[in-house]
Design a protein that fits this description.
The complex is a heterodimer of chains A (113) and B (116). Chain A has no helices and 12 strands. In chain A, strands 2, 5, 6, 10, 11 and 12 form a 6-stranded mixed sheet that branches. In chain A, strands 3-9-8-7 form a 4-stranded antiparallel sheet, with no helix packed on it. Chain A is mainly β and 113 residues long. By secondary structure, chain B is mainly beta. Chain B contains no helices and 11 strands. Classes of the chains: A mainly beta (113), B mainly beta (116). The A-B interface holds A 4, 32, 36, 42-46, 49, 51, 89, 91, 93-95, 97-101, 103-106 and B 3-4, 31, 33, 35, 40-45, 48, 55-56, 58, 91, 93, 95, 100-102, 104-110.
Chain lengths: 113, 116
Protein backbone atom coordinates (compact mmCIF):
# COMPACT_ATOMS: atom_id res chain seq x y z
CA UNK A 1 0.00 0.00 0.00
CA UNK A 2 0.87 3.67 -0.02
CA UNK A 3 2.50 5.44 2.92
CA UNK A 4 4.24 8.70 3.74
CA UNK A 5 6.83 9.23 6.46
CA UNK A 6 7.81 12.71 7.52
CA UNK A 7 10.10 13.95 10.23
CA UNK A 8 8.72 14.16 13.71
CA UNK A 9 8.01 17.55 15.17
CA UNK A 10 7.68 19.94 16.63
CA UNK A 11 10.38 21.99 14.96
CA UNK A 12 11.32 25.36 16.43
CA UNK A 13 13.46 27.79 14.43
CA UNK A 14 14.54 31.38 14.74
CA UNK A 15 13.41 33.84 12.11
CA UNK A 16 15.58 33.76 8.95
CA UNK A 17 16.84 30.24 9.69
CA UNK A 18 16.98 27.54 6.98
CA UNK A 19 14.18 24.99 7.04
CA UNK A 20 14.17 21.36 5.92
CA UNK A 21 11.31 18.98 6.59
CA UNK A 22 12.08 15.47 5.39
CA UNK A 23 9.49 13.36 3.60
CA UNK A 24 9.86 9.87 2.14
CA UNK A 25 7.21 7.68 0.59
CA UNK A 26 6.31 4.21 -0.58
CA UNK A 27 3.76 3.84 -3.34
CA UNK A 28 2.32 1.38 -5.80
CA UNK A 29 2.51 3.01 -9.17
CA UNK A 30 3.82 6.45 -10.03
CA UNK A 31 2.64 8.99 -7.46
CA UNK A 32 2.07 12.72 -7.56
CA UNK A 33 3.53 14.42 -4.48
CA UNK A 34 2.16 17.32 -2.47
CA UNK A 35 2.88 19.52 0.50
CA UNK A 36 -0.17 20.89 2.28
CA UNK A 37 -0.05 23.46 5.09
CA UNK A 38 -2.43 24.19 7.92
CA UNK A 39 -2.06 27.62 9.50
CA UNK A 40 -3.47 28.12 13.01
CA UNK A 41 -7.26 28.28 12.90
CA UNK A 42 -7.43 27.62 9.15
CA UNK A 43 -8.12 24.67 6.87
CA UNK A 44 -5.59 22.64 4.92
CA UNK A 45 -4.33 24.32 1.77
CA UNK A 46 -1.98 23.26 -0.97
CA UNK A 47 1.52 24.68 -0.66
CA UNK A 48 3.18 23.03 -3.67
CA UNK A 49 3.17 19.88 -5.76
CA UNK A 50 5.18 17.84 -8.27
CA UNK A 51 3.79 15.24 -10.62
CA UNK A 52 6.86 13.56 -12.12
CA UNK A 53 10.43 12.71 -11.25
CA UNK A 54 12.89 15.64 -10.99
CA UNK A 55 10.06 18.19 -11.03
CA UNK A 56 10.48 20.99 -8.51
CA UNK A 57 7.42 22.47 -6.87
CA UNK A 58 7.72 25.96 -5.42
CA UNK A 59 5.53 28.55 -3.72
CA UNK A 60 5.98 31.36 -1.18
CA UNK A 61 9.73 30.70 -1.02
CA UNK A 62 9.25 26.99 -0.28
CA UNK A 63 10.65 24.34 -2.62
CA UNK A 64 10.57 20.56 -2.90
CA UNK A 65 12.05 18.28 -5.58
CA UNK A 66 10.54 14.93 -6.58
CA UNK A 67 13.38 12.41 -6.16
CA UNK A 68 12.31 9.04 -7.50
CA UNK A 69 15.66 7.34 -6.80
CA UNK A 70 15.44 8.15 -3.09
CA UNK A 71 11.61 8.20 -2.93
CA UNK A 72 11.76 11.59 -1.24
CA UNK A 73 10.11 15.01 -1.44
CA UNK A 74 11.84 17.15 1.18
CA UNK A 75 10.47 20.63 1.87
CA UNK A 76 12.97 23.51 2.10
CA UNK A 77 12.94 27.26 2.65
CA UNK A 78 15.98 29.44 2.82
CA UNK A 79 14.75 31.97 5.37
CA UNK A 80 11.67 31.31 7.47
CA UNK A 81 9.39 33.98 8.89
CA UNK A 82 7.13 34.01 11.92
CA UNK A 83 4.18 33.81 9.54
CA UNK A 84 5.40 30.37 8.36
CA UNK A 85 4.45 28.86 11.72
CA UNK A 86 2.01 26.08 10.83
CA UNK A 87 1.63 22.32 10.48
CA UNK A 88 3.06 20.91 7.24
CA UNK A 89 1.77 17.68 5.68
CA UNK A 90 3.47 15.66 2.96
CA UNK A 91 1.03 13.66 0.82
CA UNK A 92 0.78 11.55 -2.31
CA UNK A 93 -1.79 10.21 -4.70
CA UNK A 94 -1.23 7.43 -7.20
CA UNK A 95 -4.41 7.67 -9.19
CA UNK A 96 -4.97 3.95 -8.93
CA UNK A 97 -8.77 3.87 -8.85
CA UNK A 98 -9.44 6.31 -6.05
CA UNK A 99 -7.46 9.55 -6.06
CA UNK A 100 -7.34 9.87 -2.33
CA UNK A 101 -4.47 11.70 -0.75
CA UNK A 102 -2.31 9.60 1.58
CA UNK A 103 -0.89 11.94 4.22
CA UNK A 104 2.04 11.85 6.59
CA UNK A 105 1.43 12.65 10.24
CA UNK A 106 2.37 16.30 9.88
CA UNK A 107 5.23 18.41 11.23
CA UNK A 108 4.50 21.41 13.41
CA UNK A 109 6.80 24.35 12.75
CA UNK A 110 7.15 27.25 15.16
CA UNK A 111 9.23 30.24 14.12
CA UNK A 112 10.30 32.61 16.88
CA UNK A 113 11.39 36.23 16.37
CA UNK B 1 -14.64 32.23 -5.42
CA UNK B 2 -16.27 30.75 -2.35
CA UNK B 3 -14.40 27.92 -0.67
CA UNK B 4 -15.63 24.62 0.69
CA UNK B 5 -18.22 25.20 3.40
CA UNK B 6 -18.81 22.87 6.33
CA UNK B 7 -21.17 22.90 9.28
CA UNK B 8 -21.29 22.70 12.17
CA UNK B 9 -17.77 23.75 13.15
CA UNK B 10 -17.92 22.03 16.51
CA UNK B 11 -20.08 19.28 17.96
CA UNK B 12 -20.09 17.56 21.33
CA UNK B 13 -22.22 14.44 21.78
CA UNK B 14 -22.40 11.45 24.08
CA UNK B 15 -21.48 7.98 22.89
CA UNK B 16 -24.27 6.07 21.16
CA UNK B 17 -25.85 9.32 19.97
CA UNK B 18 -26.03 10.19 16.29
CA UNK B 19 -24.53 13.18 14.49
CA UNK B 20 -24.52 14.58 10.97
CA UNK B 21 -22.09 16.84 9.16
CA UNK B 22 -22.81 18.90 6.06
CA UNK B 23 -20.50 19.96 3.23
CA UNK B 24 -21.01 22.32 0.30
CA UNK B 25 -18.13 21.99 -2.20
CA UNK B 26 -16.77 24.62 -4.53
CA UNK B 27 -19.17 25.23 -7.39
CA UNK B 28 -18.40 23.08 -10.40
CA UNK B 29 -16.26 20.56 -8.54
CA UNK B 30 -17.25 17.04 -9.50
CA UNK B 31 -15.23 15.19 -6.87
CA UNK B 32 -15.96 15.37 -3.15
CA UNK B 33 -13.99 13.73 -0.36
CA UNK B 34 -14.61 13.16 3.35
CA UNK B 35 -11.50 12.69 5.49
CA UNK B 36 -11.14 11.89 9.20
CA UNK B 37 -8.25 13.51 11.05
CA UNK B 38 -7.47 12.14 14.49
CA UNK B 39 -5.35 14.36 16.73
CA UNK B 40 -1.67 14.05 15.88
CA UNK B 41 -2.24 12.21 12.61
CA UNK B 42 -2.72 13.09 8.98
CA UNK B 43 -6.16 12.99 7.41
CA UNK B 44 -7.47 9.60 6.29
CA UNK B 45 -9.99 9.20 3.49
CA UNK B 46 -13.42 7.91 4.49
CA UNK B 47 -15.30 8.23 1.21
CA UNK B 48 -14.92 9.77 -2.23
CA UNK B 49 -17.74 10.79 -4.59
CA UNK B 50 -17.54 11.54 -8.29
CA UNK B 51 -20.69 13.59 -8.97
CA UNK B 52 -23.29 11.60 -6.99
CA UNK B 53 -21.61 8.19 -7.32
CA UNK B 54 -19.28 6.57 -4.78
CA UNK B 55 -15.74 5.98 -6.09
CA UNK B 56 -14.09 4.68 -2.91
CA UNK B 57 -15.58 3.88 0.49
CA UNK B 58 -13.19 1.10 1.44
CA UNK B 59 -12.16 2.81 4.69
CA UNK B 60 -15.63 3.88 5.77
CA UNK B 61 -16.88 1.95 8.85
CA UNK B 62 -20.17 1.10 7.22
CA UNK B 63 -21.76 -0.34 10.35
CA UNK B 64 -21.95 3.17 11.81
CA UNK B 65 -20.97 5.70 9.14
CA UNK B 66 -22.99 6.66 6.10
CA UNK B 67 -22.67 9.39 3.51
CA UNK B 68 -24.63 10.67 0.58
CA UNK B 69 -24.26 13.28 -2.11
CA UNK B 70 -27.67 13.95 -3.54
CA UNK B 71 -27.80 15.75 -6.91
CA UNK B 72 -24.00 15.69 -7.06
CA UNK B 73 -23.53 18.87 -5.02
CA UNK B 74 -23.92 19.00 -1.22
CA UNK B 75 -22.97 16.04 0.91
CA UNK B 76 -23.87 14.74 4.36
CA UNK B 77 -21.82 12.41 6.53
CA UNK B 78 -23.62 10.66 9.41
CA UNK B 79 -22.41 8.66 12.37
CA UNK B 80 -24.91 6.45 14.19
CA UNK B 81 -24.19 5.39 16.90
CA UNK B 82 -21.04 7.33 17.79
CA UNK B 83 -18.15 5.79 19.69
CA UNK B 84 -15.45 7.47 21.75
CA UNK B 85 -12.87 6.73 19.05
CA UNK B 86 -14.85 8.79 16.55
CA UNK B 87 -13.60 11.96 18.24
CA UNK B 88 -11.73 13.70 15.42
CA UNK B 89 -11.90 16.51 12.89
CA UNK B 90 -13.97 15.65 9.84
CA UNK B 91 -12.71 17.36 6.72
CA UNK B 92 -14.54 17.81 3.47
CA UNK B 93 -12.56 18.49 0.30
CA UNK B 94 -13.46 18.98 -3.33
CA UNK B 95 -11.67 19.02 -6.66
CA UNK B 96 -12.54 19.55 -10.31
CA UNK B 97 -12.33 15.86 -11.15
CA UNK B 98 -10.81 16.42 -14.60
CA UNK B 99 -7.20 15.56 -13.76
CA UNK B 100 -7.51 13.68 -10.50
CA UNK B 101 -3.94 12.49 -10.07
CA UNK B 102 -2.43 15.96 -10.26
CA UNK B 103 -5.19 18.36 -9.32
CA UNK B 104 -5.50 20.29 -6.10
CA UNK B 105 -7.96 19.24 -3.45
CA UNK B 106 -9.55 22.20 -1.66
CA UNK B 107 -10.36 21.64 1.99
CA UNK B 108 -13.06 23.10 4.17
CA UNK B 109 -12.42 24.30 7.74
CA UNK B 110 -13.53 20.97 9.22
CA UNK B 111 -15.97 19.88 11.90
CA UNK B 112 -14.40 19.09 15.26
CA UNK B 113 -16.33 16.24 16.95
CA UNK B 114 -15.93 15.28 20.57
CA UNK B 115 -17.66 12.11 21.78
CA UNK B 116 -18.00 11.83 25.55
Amino acid sequence: GNSVTQMEGPVTLSEEAFLTINCTYTATGYPSLFWYVQYPGEGLQLLLKATKADDKGSNKGFEATYRKETTSFHLEKGSVQVSDSAVYFCALTTGAGSYQLTFGKGTKLSVIP
Amino acid sequence: EAGVAQSPRYKIIEKRQSVAFWCNPISGHATLYWYQQILGQGPKLLIQFQNNGVVDDSQLPKDRFSAERLKGVDSTLKIQPAKLEDSAVYLCASSLGSEPKAETQYFGPGTRLLVL
